[in-house]
Structures are given as C-alpha cells and as structure tokens.
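Notes continue from the previous slide.

Worked example: a multi-chain complex. Inputs as given:
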Amino acid sequence: MSDLQSQLDQLLIFQKEAPIRFQTLGNFVLWRDGEKVNSKDWGRDKTVQLIQYLISYRQRHALHKEHIMEHLWEEGDDRDFKVALHGVNKMLEPDRPSRTEPMYLERQGVTYQLNLDKVWIDVEAIEKYITIGNEALVDDPACAKKAYKAAIALYQGSYLPNRIFADWTTEEREKSQVLILGAYTVLAELLVNENPMECVRLTQQAIAIDPTWEDAYKIQMQAYIAKGNRPQALKTYQKCADVLDEEYGIEPLPATKNLLKEIEAIG
Amino acid sequence: MTKKTAETASFMVRFNQKIYADKGEDKVQWRGKVSHVQGGQELNFTDFNDAAAFIQAQLAALTLDATQDKSTEEQENILKKSYSLFKTFAATGPQFLKETLKDPRKQVANIQEQLSEYGEELLEKVPLDDWRNASKSDFQDIKESISALTKSVATLNKKVDELSKTAPTKTTARKAPAKKVATGVKKTATTAKTPKTKK
C-alpha cells in the first residue's frame, strides 16, 4: 500500500472515530462521541463565536486572549471571555472533573488553541484530502480520486454560512471554496471518459459555486461529447460565453473556443 | 444608549490568472472578484480600476453613514478627505495604463523624454529601441522597468539630499527590503477603518 493511500486511510478512520467532530460547511454542528449535539445546548452566542473563531484560526498556534476578544467583540470584557470559554469547555467535555486541564481546548498562560490531534474539523480534513489527491495525481490516480471524493463529500456548502458578514470567517470561507473548486474540476477531468455523467454533475457543482469558473464549462463540454451529446456540449459553451460576457465583458479563452470548433466539426 | 456606527469594512479580493497563447503570442489575463464582507456585495472585474471604484463606493457609504448627524457641508468635507485614500492611485496608475494602451508609440516617446531629463547614462540602461515595435503586452515590462527606475531615482535623490545636508560628513544609504511577489490564484483581505462616531 502506498504511503499516500495509508495516510488517506488514517484520515478516513479519524473522520469516523474522532471523539469531537465539527461540521462548519453548510451548517455548524458538533458531534460528541458520535452523537450530534443539539445546537440550543450552546446557550449564549458568544460561546458559539468563540469556538468558531478558534476553528477559523486553528492553524495559528496559541491565540492570545486579548487578541481573540478584540477581534470578536471589540467592547467585550474579561468576564465575557471567561463565560464563553467555560461554555466551550462544558460543551466539549461535559463530564470533565473540576481542577483538571481541558483536553480539546488547550491553554498555555493566556493563549488558547484546539488540539487538532483529537478534534476533527471538516475544513481541516478537506485540505488534507485535497493535498493527498494532488500528490497522488500522477503516480496513483486511484488514490487521488478517492481523496478528492472524500473532500467533495464533506463540502456541504459555504463555511459558517450564518457568519458571512463577520470578517474573521472570510479567509477560511475563501480558502475552502477555492480548494473545493479545484477538487471538483480535477476529479471531473479524471472522470471525463470513465464516467461522463458524473463528470457533468461535478462540473455543475463547481459552476453552482462560481458561475465564471471556465475550466468547469470546458470539462463539461468534453464530458457531453464523450457521452455523444453534441447539442448539450454546444449549449454549455454558449452558457460559458454568456456568463463571461455578462460578468467580465470578455470571451472564453482560445482553448475553450478551439474545443467549440472541434465540436462543431463533429456535426 | 448610544448607537455605534460601523467603522470597519473588509474586502476579499480573488485573482484568477489565465495564461494562454493567442496567435503565437503568450498572454496573461487576470480575472478578479472583490467582495465586501460586511455588506455582501460582489463585483467581478478584469480591470483593477473597477475593483478600486467598488471599494471606494463601499467606503464612501461607510463615511456617509458615520457622518449622518453632520451638515451637508461638513459631510462633503469629510468625504473629500476620505477619497484622498485613492488620490495617488487614481492620479497615476490608471492614467499611465490608459495612455499606454491607447497609443503605445506616443507613450514610448513620453518615456524617452522623461528619461532624457536624467541624462544619457540612464538612457543607455533602458533598451527603448527594442521596445519601439513591441506589442501591447510587452508594455507590462516597460511599466515594471519604469517602476524600478523611479525607485532608483528616488533613492538617488534621497542620497544626494542627505549628502548635501551632512557634507562633508560621511553618510550611508539604507537598503530597502525586497518585496515578496506572489503568483497564481491568490486572495487578500483588507480592512479599512473610519473614525468612531456616536449618535
């Protein structure tokens, strides 16, 4: 078994067995020991904001308390932070004995960070799956396909959709969206001849996220041709040209136009 | 209780680079999308001026919102100051690009004229003759060369100023740190703040 395949398998196991799992795409949900936690149990919104902030900045180690408070609440005081922190720890470890250190939200002095070895987060997993997919693409396309599929299965929508107006969520939202657009198009390209209809579905998903994603239209045209559906391939080109004209006032790239010529020549 | 008006505007800018060959010539196209985070508005663009205008409009709205309790005259004055953020950018970059695209040969002449002011030595360093038959896309190189030259001239001017101030004492010029250039699809979040206003 290749090293990448083994990494992928370990990630899939972690996704299934992690004691704490967060869904942040399309919705915000916590699973504790495999059970979905009622969103009302979070109580105050500041508690939810704090955990979502820690998730958003999970890769910046040791977030300072003052920095978190300033970024989240501007006018919040120390008490607000303490209450929110207590709420987060209570949600993650409701049965933790008093005077013991939290396991999932680690503290060092006045800095905090999530323990990513124990806490599974969908956006973190997506990035890892796509990294494996990209690395395996040339030498192990089967592993790459599996990795991309695992990433795509996790993409349930925009990152923290109820916080789209909060600037601290923007970076993660943009990053996950660009990553998944890449995964959709690369996987679709791998499946053009093997499974054209799945390829069409994947490109449609990409276009639904970003209607100006030209690569997706081009691959979709190829998939329709592989399926023998010339009229639909022509329609796809037209849609692409219309969208690019409307949004940017530009024409499709020469490669897309050349593909159109090839399709027209088939008739 | 006083109501605090919004004082932060965040923008996410996505650039998508398309490199392609057209009639045997390599070309680059940038497709961009700028989003105003707090308002949710978005704009697709291929000309960065459009993105700048979009950002400017959102910031103007923020300024107007923060100065609602002021007189029209005061509001206009503050808005004018708010626009100064874009003054330098609006006065130089777009005009240069517009003129270059409209008449590349004329722009070469302008560049030559400007360079001649700095003497023959500088003219030798700029391969203007190679550029005379250049295509429009080659003018990106010209722009970059001009930008580098402008910086060099500014540094030299500074040096001369320092020398004339401190002469005959010895002075050393500070070396500017190299700028990191990112390529490919990239994203940038920018935030802007206006003064706090309470009403």
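Summary box: The longest helix of chain A spans residues 170-190. The beta strands of chain A are 20-23, 29-32, 35-36, 63-64, 105-108, 111-114, 119-121.
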